[in-house]
């Protein structure tokens, strides 16, 4: 029983028996790798909590104890 899915790059139907599966072609495979390499997909999430950001900047500013460490 053969399987098929859509090429992640161009969404063409690709059979599981295709040598480039799950991509329809070598070109699409390279394009997908390029997307990863160029940062098209982001894994880490930036801090977006305003309270946490406020706390971080405040502890930096109002902490004369550690001033001489810099
Ligand atoms: Zn493709």
TrEMBL record:
Residue ranges, annotated region (Disordered): 42-70
Keyword Metal-binding applies: yes
Keyword terms of this UniProt record: Metal-binding, Zinc
Residue ranges with Basic and acidic residues bias: 55-70
Annotated Pfam families: YacG
Protein source organism: Edaphobacter acidisoli
The protein's name: DNA gyrase inhibitor YacG
Gene Ontology terms describing biological process: regulation of DNA-templated transcription
Keyword Transmembrane helix: no
An example Gene Ontology molecular-function term: zinc ion binding
InterPro entries: DNA_gyrase_inhibitor_YacG, Znf_NHR/GATA
């Amino acid at each position: 029983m053969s399987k098929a899915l859509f090429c992640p790059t161009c969404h063409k139907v690709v059979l599981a028996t295709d040598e480039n599966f799950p991509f329809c072609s070598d070109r699409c495979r390279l394009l997908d790798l390029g997307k990863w390499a160029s940062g098209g997909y982001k894994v880490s999430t930036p801090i977006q909590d305003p309270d946490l950001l406020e706390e971080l900047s405040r502890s930096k500013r109002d902490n004369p104890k550690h001033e001489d460490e810099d």
